[in-house]
Every structure is written in structure tokens, then in C-alpha cells.
Amino acid sequence: MSNVHQFTSKDLILEKACEWISAIDRGLNKNEKEQFKLWMMQSTAHQDAVYELAQLWDELAVLNELSSLFPHRNAKPQKNKWAFTSAIAASLFAALMVCSYLLISLENGYNAEQAKINYTKIYTTKVGEQATYVLPDGTIVQLNTNSLLEVAYSKGRRQLLLSKGEGRFNVAKDPARPFSVMAGDKSFTALGTVFNVQRNTSSDLELVVTEGKVMITDPSVAVSADDFKDYQLADNNAKKVRNINANIVISGEKAIIEQSITKPITQLSVDDVQRDLAWQNGMLIFNGEYLSDALNEVSRYTSTRFELSSAELANIKVAGVFKAGDVEGLLESLQTNFAIEHEHLGEHMVSLKQQTKS
């Protein structure tokens, strides 16, 4: 049986819907709005495809524009309306890639094939914002709150700089071009894998690998594809390849860098991974962290800051699952479970103190 995918009417609808989504993202003129309305009115399948892609596109401006054009339409498509088979799912992913390439062409003036080789762009998120991007080679990047990522692709390398924040990188395989994320004074290099980098300071970093393996080196070291292949994993101790001092972190492991020193690599349980990466689902999970540390984590997602009345209060251990940025939900939980009272001191400051026993 042939493995060549035969394009169906659904594929064509998805491709057209993708073109419209990218056009909405850059802004429709009056004539385009009329054309888009006519296309949407031709079929409910057109409408379902647009709204399905709009959810995946992860740009609030697109959903807002759809809401203004079709105020009576539910933003969420009917459940299971588009039951994608594996082939259709592949087409959907291809359609999303086309969207990405279209935007690159519009913004930078060159075609998608060129963009795969030579591509530079800066991606940012605000405090409390999370966003997902598809790079020209198919790599998927998910940025956490208050992040800044610079991307620079060339013929021989895929180089990224995480100046602040946190990102998840689902790296498209390209044996000829290593993929490196520089953060602070470390560089994390892979050929095709999934990993998460959190930059706390220039010398304090965290790496969690959920698929494949990642090499940790100094940013001054340009790791080639041959270097990566020649690096034989025997243990987690630093070894040398072409005089490269490096650590390898494999799937299910975590590396913590403190004061520029890589601590011993640790094996993570499933619960550990879920807790560390809960932000990717918009959640925060605490399991015995000190209240002061938990509040520092919460503050990454909001402009609210917390003032603790005592060291005893700061050292209370907390556990629970919270929606990132939901300060009121957190305060309510602290009141209910720990009898911790709160007082708003202005717009962005909350004072916490232990409720006195009667």
C-alpha cells in the first residue's frame, strides 16, 4: 500500500482555513473581511476548521477578531466535530506549518524554504502570558511567563538565546544541524529531542529532559553534529570529546546549575516531571515547598508581590494544585487550610499573617 497521503476535501479546507488564520493574525482589510465572511458562510465545515485552528494558533487577537466578525458563534467547535484520523492529524500539523511559513514570508520578505536555513526572530511573553510557536524547521517552542527568546538559524547551526524566562523545546530532527539553547553561562545542545530550560539568573538554571538527550557545555563551545554523535554515554559524569567538557542529561533526568556549577544529575519520578512542567498546562503544583518559595513561584505569573509577617510563616510547607496567576484562589486556599489571613496593601502588594488563636 502506498504511503503517499492523498489530499481530501478536508485537507484542502484545512489549508484554506490556515491561510485565513494567518491573514487574520496580521490583520484583515475591509475587502478581505468580506471575502472571509463569504467563505465562512459557504459551509459549516469551513467554520469548524477555522475555529479549530484558531484554538491551536494560540493568539488571543485571532479569537477576538473571529468573535467580532461572528458574535453569535461559539468560540469552541462542537466536540468531536472534527474527529481527526492519523492522516488528517498529520495534515493539520502540516497546515499549521504552512501558517508559520506564510507569516515568515509576510514579515521578513523571503520564502519558507529559505527560512528553514536562514531565519532570525525574537519571541517574547509578558508576565502571566504563555505562548506556543512553530519554527520554520518544525521545532515547537512553548514559552512561559515573562520570557525572551532570540532565534538564529544558519546553514550549519540552529542557535537560540534564552535571555530570560523559561521554554519547552520540541526539537525537529536534523542530524546535520545541532540545536542549541544558550541561557546564562550554559549551552544546551540536542539533535532532536524534547527538553525544558528555566533561567532563574545567569548562573542559576534548570534543565529537564523528557525525550532524547541533551548536552550541557559552556556557550563558547560550538558543538558539531559529529561531536554529538561521538559522545558516548557511559554515565552522568563530565567527559571529554575533542577537549569538550560536557554533561549529558537523558530522558527523565534533571540538571540543576547553581552558581555556574552543574550539580549531580538526578532521576525524576513521573510526579516530579509533572510538577516541574505543570506550567505547560497553565498550572502550578506544590508538594511540600516552603510557603516563601511557593509565593516566589506564583509571583512569576503576576505583578502581585507578597509580604510575610514572620519567618515561621515563611517556613510553612504547602501542597496543592493552582492555576498560574490565580492569586485570589491561592489566598482563599491559604485561609482555608492554614488560617493565613491576607490584606491588600495597594494594587500589587498582599500582606500575609497567621490568624491568631482565640
Would you mind describing this structure in some detail?
With 358 residues, this protein is of the alpha+beta class. 34% of the residues lie in helices and 31% in strands. The chain has a 15-stranded mixed β-sheet that branches. Strands 17-20-19 form a three-stranded mixed β-sheet. The protein is flat and about 65 Å long. Mean pLDDT is 80; it is low at 1-8, 76-91, 101-110 and 232-240.
Strand content: 25-35%
User: What percent of the residues sit in helical stretches (DSSP H or I)?
Assistant: 25-40%
Q: Major β-sheet, in short?
A: 15 strands, mixed
Task: Pick out the low-confidence regions.
Answer: 1-8, 76-91, 101-110, 232-240
Class based on secondary structure composition and strand pairing: alpha+beta
Average the pLDDT over all residues and give the rounded result.
80
Number of strands: 20
Radius of gyration: 23 Å
Oligomer class: single chain
SS element count, helices: 11
Shape: flat
Report the end-to-end length measured between terminal Cα atoms.
78 Å
Topology:
Layout: H1 9-26, H2 30-41, H3 44-57, H4 60-69, H5 86-108, H6 112-117, E1 119-124, E2 131-134, E3 140-143, E4 148-153, E5 158-170, E6 179-183, E7 186-190, E8 194-199, E9 205-211, E10 213-217, H7 225-230, E11 239-241, E12 244-250, E13 253-258, E14 261-262, E15 266-267, H8 270-276, E16 283-290, H9 291-299, E17 305-308, H10 311-314, E18 317-323, H11 327-338, E19 340-344, E20 349-354
Parallel strand pairs: 5-6, 17-20
Antiparallel strand pairs: 1-4, 2-3, 3-5, 4-5, 5-8, 6-7, 7-10, 8-9, 9-13, 10-12, 11-12, 13-14, 13-15, 16-18, 19-20
Helix pairs in contact: 1-3, 1-5
